[in-house]
């Protein structure tokens, strides 16, 4: 593959980002045309991404990033309708571009004035603007009380640690496996555990199978954690080191592992990264408000979460198809949908649990509850993740 061919997706990606910067500066009336051009170049980047001289894992994350970037830009331009203020006409174009770059890359705290206190512009969506103004008292409260040099040194250490952790996951801990370990029957763990072997499920779960399942469960928890943290640390190192951003503009990507002690809701709401949360959540709320479901409605939060999980699942299916996986696409979508169902189930169980204990007049043991929730999360991942992983390994794109 020629060097020029490999440069094509890079050139189209840079053009897409440039169009995003320029569109952010434009007034609302001119944005649709330029956003359409942005979509065209993003599609070209998507189509030529196979020419990139990188690993399949990198290209997979690159494709996910393209989809998310489009969603984030739509959210920024049309849901938040973030607009450079008319009073800023005298401000230099460089200042406006800096503002646009800041907002294009600001995916987690889009509607908080803390992130935009020293730049021009504000959202014009009235509901979001009210939230934006209500949080004004938090403007001068730093998220990270650390000097620039200490932050840069910390990120260098993070890069080294995550590099070795990645090597540990991929090489040292990776078990020796064969195709027999990923047979379709292996995905059915509980029924093989409870019932006697038969023609469909001739094997009982073995210790080796549990070890392999445990490894892929660990990869689920730490795989994206390591990969995304490496990219996050590198970008933070560059932006903070060059003085483009401040340390508080790059808070932790993932939450604490203690979030896993709060059930599957804690896994997604506390531990997991928040890269998509603002864009997906605001879009889902905008959709629900259009059909008359307000925040005080009992179904608002479950339906908002349902939209978020459906969009996430659809994005993973689209990327899997583009990567060349010929199977397990829709199974992955239903896995994400299953996580939403678990969130609803956990909420109902918690409500019933609290009522029972309240009526019995007993004191709840918080430590015991955290242990039970943590074991439940491990059991859910141990049982459900191999259902997708094993299927996808059979149709893994080798070229």
Automatic annotation (TrEMBL):
Predominant localisation class: membrane
Residues in Wax synthase domain copies: 250-328
Keywords of this entry: Membrane, Transmembrane, Transmembrane helix
GO cellular component terms given for this protein: membrane
Extent of the signal sequence: none
Cross-referenced InterPro entries: Wax_synthase_dom
Intracellular or extracellular location(s): Membrane
Pfam families listed in its UniProt record: MBOAT_2
Transmembrane residue ranges: 6-25, 61-82, 303-321, 333-353, 365-383
Membrane topology: Multi-pass membrane protein
Protein name: Wax synthase domain-containing protein
């Amino acid at each position: 593959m020629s060097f020029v061919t490999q440069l094509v997706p890079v050139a189209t990606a840079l053009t897409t980002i440039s169009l995003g910067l320029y569109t952010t500066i434009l007034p609302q009336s001119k944005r649709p045309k330029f956003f359409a051009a942005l979509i065209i170049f993003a599609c070209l980047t998507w189509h030529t991404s196979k020419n990139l001289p990188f690993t399949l894992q990198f290209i997979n994350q690159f494709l996910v990033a393209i989809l998310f970037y489009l969603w984030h830009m739509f959210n920024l331009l049309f849901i938040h309708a973030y607009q450079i203020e008319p009073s800023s006409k005298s401000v230099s174009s460089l200042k406006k571009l800096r503002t646009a770059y800041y907002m294009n890359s600001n995916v987690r705290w889009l509607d908080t004035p803390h992130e935009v206190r020293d730049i021009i512009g504000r959202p014009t969506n009235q509901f979001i603007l009210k939230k934006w103004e209500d949080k004004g008292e938090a403007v001068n409260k730093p998220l990270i009380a650390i000097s620039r040099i200490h932050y840069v040194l910390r990120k260098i250490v993070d890069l080294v640690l995550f590099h070795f952790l990645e090597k540990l996951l991929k090489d040292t801990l990776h078990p020796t496996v064969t195709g027999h370990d990923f047979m379709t029957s292996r995905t059915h763990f509980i029924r093989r555990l409870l019932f006697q072997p038969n023609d469909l499920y001739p094997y009982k779960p073995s210790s080796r199978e549990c070890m392999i399942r445990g490894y892929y469960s660990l990869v689920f928890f730490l795989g994206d954690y390591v990969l995304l943290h490496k990219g996050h640390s590198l970008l933070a190192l560059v932006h903070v080191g060059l003085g483009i951003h401040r340390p508080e503009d790059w808070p932790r990507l993932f939450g604490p592992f203690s979030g896993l002690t709060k059930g599957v809701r804690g896994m997604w709401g506390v531990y997991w990264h928040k890269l998509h949360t603002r864009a997906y959540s605001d879009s889902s709320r905008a959709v629900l408000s259009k059909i008359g479901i307000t925040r005080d409605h009992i179904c608002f939060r479950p339906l908002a979460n349902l939209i978020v999980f459906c969009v996430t699942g659809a994005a993973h299916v689209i990327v899997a198809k583009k990567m060349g996986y010929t199977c397990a696409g829709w199974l992955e979508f239903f896995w994400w949908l299953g996580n939403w169902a678990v969130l609803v189930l956990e909420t109902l169980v918690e409500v019933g649990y609290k009522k029972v204990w309240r009526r019995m007049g007993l004191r709840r043991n918080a430590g015991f509850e955290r242990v039970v929730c943590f074991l439940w999360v491990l059991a859910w991942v141990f049982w459900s993740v191999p259902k997708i992983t094993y299927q996808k390994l059979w149709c893994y794109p080798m070229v």
